Amino acid sequence: MSHLKNLTLKVWRQSGPTDTGHFENYTIDEISDEASFLEMLDVLNESLINENKEAVVFDHDCREGICGTCSLMINGVAHGPQKATTTCQLHMRTFKSGDTIVIEPWRATAFPIIKDLMVDRSAFDRIIESGGFITAATGGAPDANLIPIPKPVADAAMDSAACIGCGACVAACPNGAASLFTAAKISHLNFLPQGQSERFKRTEAMVETMDEYFGSCTNHGECSAACPKEISIDVIALMNKDYRASKFKNRKELSR
Amino acid sequence: MAILMATTSSTLGSKREPATATAVGTRRKRPFLLDLYSTAVGKKYVMAISGIAMMGFVLFHMIGNLKMYQGAEALNHYAEFLKKLLYPLAPKGVVLWILRGGLITMLLLHLHAAWSLTRLNRFARAVKYQGPRDYQVAKFASRTMRWTGIIVLAYLVWHLLDFTFGTVNAVGTDGTFVRGEVYENVVRSLDRPVVAAFYVLANVLLGIHLFHGAWSIFQSLGWNNPRFNTWRRGFATGFATIVVVGNVSFPIAVIAGIVK
Fold this sequence. Notes:
Oligomer: heterodimer
Helix content of chain A: 25-40%
CATH architecture of the largest domain in chain A: Orthogonal Bundle
Helix content of chain B: 55-70%
Largest interface: A-B, 60 and 54 residues
Number of domains of chain B: 1
Number of strands of chain B: 0
Mean pLDDT of chain B: 89
């Protein structure tokens, strides 16, 4: 175990949604390279509290890379420099002594800043509410493997279902688009037999709800590169295809 | 009721506000195609389909121009042939004008979709990142689509003024622009080094635009299949290369005196 010395942090401080905000510089004299990025911020906050200053507010929860609560734009990269890693699983060993680290919140109109580095991601909830579920009858749990699903299909659905809804795709996208999130949530259900009955209703509703808040996809691929779960932009193509199908199918059904 | 109305209208009326209400707005009723076009995904279809149409034009335009290597007669005859497409089944010039009409429509749709999507995307990140961004995979081509597009559009205007209307073309021997003398017009215009350089530059930018666009089409239209996914990049690169090499060769050939 070794230590990193003399880190300069440029942290975005914003007292509330309406404040303009600014960068503030902090120095971390010494930190273990085994500390996670959020632990480093905890250390910073401890010292701020000791100095009677206000702690830096940031989102975090499970700290094991599965909940999707943590965020942060670190040196202009969503979730920092390590691929397929959430900020909480990013460790200080990825940095060097003397580094300057710029920390900014996710920036998107649909993700208003609550305070400092914390943003409101409930626009994602609006998308899920509009169709990111299956309507299942309540009652006893059905037997496992009651519905046969080919292994490749199950795998593809699982790859999409890996999305933790952290919002890195939106943050990384030069257009502030939520295509990767929405497409992952759509295809995770659209791949599976359980999702078929509501497939086209779901796709239409979720895409159009996404449209109310987010930008459009220009196929840069930044979202996928930033995604801690490495979800492929292939799901976006699937979403585009299903959206077209659903517009035609739903129109036909409504006309009956 | 009034409160409910207020909530609904704020969700519907002003788009892209911070998400606070739980009510999901119902969409305005419009004709089917307009409804499809009203979404970002729908606009991307239009982008892709109009892109395909213009790619077809650009490719055949380049192939047609290769005639200049066979001399003045071949190229001028080819220009005359375009007017006589499907003649005598259709009167002279009719098919050409139908094709032109289609192209102009496609161009306008492409421009409108690009403009409205750009506006949408600006709204989607009203406050930009204050620190520097470090892009991971976004290519130069994909990030400069708007710029390459605008410059190619400006070039298109010049190109029409040059060879169709003759406004900026060097005049012929009798002091006027002669419309039917395609070959001579090409030589007279591209013999000016600055104009030739502009043609080369604009076509390289067109190539960059196509390098991303021709690949992007597959994603936008949802043509994604593991069987051919690996070929999509190659197709776009190959298409862009063929068009650029062909088009750039013309000004170079004139400057080098191969076409004179």
